[in-house]
Amino acid sequence: MDIENANCKVKVSQCTDMEVLPIEKPIKIDHEITGLDILVQELHKVFSKNYVNVQDVQKLMAGYKSDPKDWRKFAKFDRFRYTRNLVDAGNGLFNIMILCWGPGHASAIHDHADSHCFMKLLGGSLEEVRYDWPDNVQPEVFKVLNKNNNNTKSAICPCGNDTNLRCCQQDNYQNEVTDGQHGGQDGDEYDIKNMKEIGRTRLEVNDVCYINDALGLHRMENPSHVDGAVSLHLYCPPFESCRVFDARTGKPTQVTVTFWSMYGQKVKRVGIFGAVFMIVILIYWTDVTFVRVKNLSQRISPTYLY
Ligand SMILES: N[C@@H](CS(=O)O)C(=O)O
Ligand SMILES: [Fe+2]
């Protein structure tokens, strides 16, 4: 498999039988993209084709020069954790979002649900730490390739000498645990020191990087204690859940990814008190309706119903 030429309209594990094309290195930026809205338009054009080369997406993202006036309206920070803010849903073929990292905010070690993940730094700086898959957990792509973890990774890592399109690791998820099961068919034994760090990359404004499950796992961190950081992420195909890994043992947990805002509007969340309130109202309403129906039924046909 040659990830640099993978068709990112499909999951990574479905890219294994593609034709190998010559690789252009370093990736040249064909033309400058003059705004975030133009970048989104260009991405729609590219994704309207049957085949979308990983490099085409990298080039487009690299061709856009970060300008806060383009993305300020999407950049919504939270005090406690990084936020995911949807910019465009890409007709279901990709999604593009802005992530806002407060000082010291970080993601947990995660995978990318067999999708292709592109990231561009828009503001501040971020550090990406990449990890090997834990011994007893395998991504779908390794199962398909039927190769061992190490061989696969070294064969396909697209890192070149290009400093702008650096290979990096990152993930996307937020901290809503939806499934306490750990790994399904994956092994049940998780040893301390299961997570092996395999690289660190500092990203500066306008750097673009790419990761998928064949390249490993990662976490991102805003190393600044003072400044925020803003990054632009594109995932294709889009995914709704991924796995996070315990940094000490490598134990995986399935989590749902959520948005803090969509198209510049904060997503309304029902907190625990809101949920309890709604349940009380529902019980009250059901009870009132039941009594009404019961009374009505008694009037209509009392003997039949009782
Ligand atoms: N993949 C993470 C962000 S990162 O840490 O790469 C997310 O989508 O939330
Ligand atoms: Fe990520």
Task: Describe the protein's architecture and organization.
- This protein has helices at 36-47, 54-63, 68-71, 140-145, 149-156, 272-300, 302-305; strands at residues 83-88, 95-101, 109-110, 116-123, 126-131, 176-179, 197-203, 208-211, 217-221, 229-236, 241-245, 252-256, 261-262, 265-266.
- With 306 residues, it is an alpha+beta fold.
- Strands 8-4-10-2-1-13-14 form a seven-stranded mixed β-sheet, with helices on one face.
- It starts with 35 loop residues before the first helix and ends with a helix.
- Bound molecules: 3-sulfinoalanine and fe (ii) ion (FE2).
- 3-sulfinoalanine binds next to strand 9.
Strand content: 15-25%
Structural class: alpha+beta
Number of continuous helical runs = 7
Are there runs of 5+ residues with pLDDT below 50, and where?
A: 18-24, 148-187, 300-306
Give the overall shape, derived from the CA principal axes: globular
Give the strand order, joined by hyphens, for the main sheet: 8-4-10-2-1-13-14
Order of helices and strands: HHHEEEEEHHEEEEEEEEEHH
The major sheet is characterized as: 7 strands, mixed
Pathway: Organosulfur biosynthesis; taurine biosynthesis; hypotaurine from L-cysteine: step 1/2
Family: Belongs to the cysteine dioxygenase family.
Binding site for Fe cation: 110, 112, 218
Catalytic activity: L-cysteine + O2 = 3-sulfino-L-alanine + H(+)
